[in-house]
Design brief:
There is one protein chain. The chain is an alpha+beta fold and 698 residues long. It folds into three domains: 226 residues, Immunoglobulin-like; 185 residues, Serine Threonine Protein Phosphatase 5, Tetratricopeptide repeat, CATH 1.25.40; 203 residues, no CATH class. Helices cover 43% and strands 24% of the residues. The strands form five sheets. The chain has an eight-stranded mixed beta sheet with strand order 6-5-9-3-2-11-14-13, with no helix packed on it. Strands 18-19-17-16-22-23 form a six-stranded mixed beta sheet, covered by helices on one side. Strands 1-4-8-7 form a four-stranded antiparallel beta sheet. Helix 2 packs antiparallel against helix 3, helix 7 packs antiparallel against helix 8 and helix 15 runs antiparallel to helix 16.
């Protein structure tokens, strides 16, 4: 089979090739017509029509000098739209030798729909004589050939008719730029549409949807593009609302103005809805016209609903407007890109709910359809609430879904979805550090205790704030540890257990007390010797909660050295405290929890995934609490020479558990009262002795 491509390179065809082409075209004619009518009869609907162009078949040197198109636009008695097209082409052979032009009548492949049929009354004329056209079987392609003498000019007239009987938005689309394939440059071109609607107004400018590109003129009965420049890159387009539909729209509008009825409002809205649906699927319709039809349909339905409510029509008539509005909103709830417009989903749900409230129980088909729309809208809104992590709103929407009469949803699947939402909400509460709310929300459904770290890995206190005062004759340890929110009862229980254990080994003399005031554990220890402190350490449980307290009880003693010189007394206190083992315990638990939170692959099942995330989140939060405990706990160490020492005569250090050990030393030099009294007595005795010696000498 010979195939021809449209391009500008020059070539010649032999007579033998032409003969083969003619023979093949004749044989293909029967196949084309047979296939064409088979398709039409099988589909039961007419195929689309398209404008045709004269294009070179293969390479040629023939130039296109000018091109004019006259279109007679008329409306038939059945209100069908008819376009009778006469396209004139003037060609020139610039060579000094004869030339043969192979022509094809075809539609540009880029604009051709999947299925087309030849326009009516197709004919090609040259000098008043009809030229034979041979179908090739390749779409609408028809071929012929012409002979040109040297420097010869010839005019061809291509005639055909386009009939739009049922198309809602018929359009005249003329891709003139496809003619740029001809060699040379076109000198001038003109496209004219002459309107003959017998004064009906069905083709008036207020019915036009498009007249593009710019540069046209209009005098009330003729639309024309005229230029001596190149063909426009975009196709010339003139588009209207089908005359039959436009006439019905005008009739409904007039009826509403003169004597309104709900049927007219509904019919007008349905007409605009029909145009809106068609515009959304037809190539070339602008977004402006699409939005125009939507707004007009919306206005007609809303005006009809307001009129129905004012006039007190039966509920079922009012329900029809709510149903129409719900269907209109539904058409915009999901965009062409598949994204959900949640505003339209919400409006659809509201209108569907209003329609259900008015539809009688006997209207089973309508109620079933509207219930499905309402269920779709509620599901879309529930999805939006889940995306916002607004779990209460999502749960409320699921409750509304379950409460629908004759619910079109699977209640079992809905219950499972609700349970998963509870897990998601518990995950959110845990993320906010609110374990009590998570437990109260789902209770045994969550089994949240199984997701929390083990009791030994859960910290009870937020921080420790202790003061250790060391004097030569005394040792005082005091301070507090606030309990974490939500763990006060556990803290109370642990403190009470320790208090009972200390009471069993209460030192004599001295004081060792610990109690819980409702929010904090308060520790007071004073005047307790080392042996008694070791007994307290033995009574203290060996767990991480009391690790800091046990370390201080063991390492509270300081090295005390006292020396005297004359009346001066020098007191030296040296202390070394290493709290890093305590910090290592706390941070070790935190590191272990973080490792566990990252271990394992994410499950595929939704519930297993959420439960794993819950456990991982609980572990990370617990790790943060241990890290914060090590970071914010403080021990204040004060070294003083005696209880009566002024603050200026003591020294204070603030130590964190993670600080490296450092030697703490304080040296105090004071006058010894005993040595001062002895010195005074010796001085007085010396004075009396000296006075006695002087008296004897006198």
């Amino acid at each position: 089979m010979l195939q021809y491509q449209m391009h500008r390179r020059n070539a010649t065809l032999s007579r033998f090739t032409l003969a083969l082409l003619a023979a093949w075209s004749f044989l293909a004619t029967l196949l084309v017509h047979t296939t064409h009518w088979t398709e039409v009869s099988a589909q039961g609907t007419p195929l689309e029509q398209s404008n045709l162009l004269l294009l070179p078949l293969g390479d040629t040197t023939i130039e296109l000098l000018s091109h004019t198109v006259n279109v007679a636009v008329s409306v038939g008695g059945d209100r069908s739209l008819r376009l009778d097209i006469a396209a004139s082409y003037r060609f020139h052979n610039p060579k000094t030798a004869e030339a043969t032009l192979l022509l094809q009548v075809n539609t540009p492949s880029t604009d051709a729909p999947a299925a087309l049929r030849l326009p009516d009354a197709l004919a090609l004329e040259s000098g008043g004589e009809m030229l034979p056209l041979q179908p090739t079987g390749n779409g609408l392609q028809q071929t012929t050939q012409l002979q040109f003498g040297p420097d010869a000019r010839r005019s061809l007239l291509l005639r055909y008719s386009l009939l739009f009987a049922t198309a809602e938005l018929p359009a005249f689309v003329y891709p003139a730029s496809a003619l740029d394939i001809w060699p040379g440059r076109v000198g001038s071109w003109r496209v004219t549409l002459n309107f003959a609607d017998a004064g009906s107004g069905l083709l008036a400018a207020d019915n036009w949807l498009a007249a593009e590109p710019e540069g046209w003129s209009y005098n009330g009965s003729r639309l024309q593009w005229l230029s001596e420049n190149d063909f426009p890159a975009e196709p010339l387009r003139w588009q209207v609302i089908h005359p039959a539909i436009w006439q019905e729209i005008q009739s409904r509008r007039q009826a509403i103005r003169q004597q309104p009825a709900t049927a007219d409002f509904r019919a007008l809205g349905d007409l605009y809805r029909r145009l809106y649906d068609r515009a959304g699927h037809q190539v070339g319709v602008t977004d402006t016209n699409l939005e125009r039809f939507y707004a007009q349909a919306l206005s007609a339905y809303r005006d009809g609903l307001a009129f129905a409510e004012q006039t007190g029509v039966p509920p079922q008539e009012r329900a029809s407007f709510h149903q129409a509005l719900a269907a209109l909103y539904r058409s915009r709830s999901i965009g062409a890109d598949g994204k959900i417009d949640f505003a339209y989903a919400q409006w659809m749900s509201a209108e569907a709910e209003a329609a259900l409230a008015l539809l009688p129980a006997t209207a089973t088909a309508e109620r079933s359809e509207v219930s499905g729309w309402l269920a779709d809208g509620l599901r879309m809104q529930a999805r939006q609430a889940q995306q916002r992590k607004d779990w209460p709103a999502a749960l409320a929407l699921l409750e509304r879904l379950a409460a629908l009469p004759d619910s079109p949803v699977d209640l079992g699947a809905l219950a499972e979805e609700r349970r998963l939402l509870l897990l998601e909400q518990a995950l959110q509460f845990l993320g906010q550090g609110n374990q009590e709310a998570a437990l109260a929300l789902a209770g045994s459904t969550l089994a949240l205790d199984d997701l929390l770290p083990a009791a030994a890995e859960r910290t009870i206190f937020a921080r420790w704030e202790l003061t250790l005062t060391i004097r030569p004759d005394d040792l005082i340890l005091s301070g507090a540890a606030p309990a974490l929110a939500g763990r006060t009862e556990e803290a109370r229980r642990l403190v009470e257990q320790l208090s009972l254990a200390w009471a069993a080994v209460q030192p004599q003399p001295g004081t060792a007390q610990i109690h819980f005031d409702g929010t904090r554990a308060l520790v007071t220890l004073a005047g307790v010797a080392l042996g008694d402190r070791l007994a307290l350490v033995q009574a203290t449980p060996q767990n991480t909660h009391w690790a800091l307290l046990r370390t201080l009880l063991v390492n509270a003693d300081a090295e005390i050295e006292t020396t005297a010189h004359l009346i001066w007394q020098r007191t030296s206190l040296r202390h070394s405290l290493d709290l890093r083992p305590v910090a290592d315990q706390w941070l070790g638990i935190a590191a272990s929890l973080e490792r566990e939170s990252l271990a394992g692959d994410s499950p595929v099942a939704a519930e297993a995934r959420i439960r794993k995330e819950l456990r991982a989140l609980a572990q990370r939060q617990e790790a943060e609490r241990w890290q914060k405990l090590a970071r914010e706990s403080r021990v204040q160490i004060e070294l003083a020479a005696s209880a009566q020492t002024e603050p200026a005569a003591s020294r204070v250090w603030s130590v964190q558990p993670s600080d490296p050990p450092q030697p703490l030393a304080y040296v105090s030099q004071t006058i010894s009262p005993l040595r001062l009294l002895l010195a005074i007595a010796l001085a007085m005795a010396a004075i009396f002795v000296l006075a006695g010696i002087l008296w004897l000498l006198l």
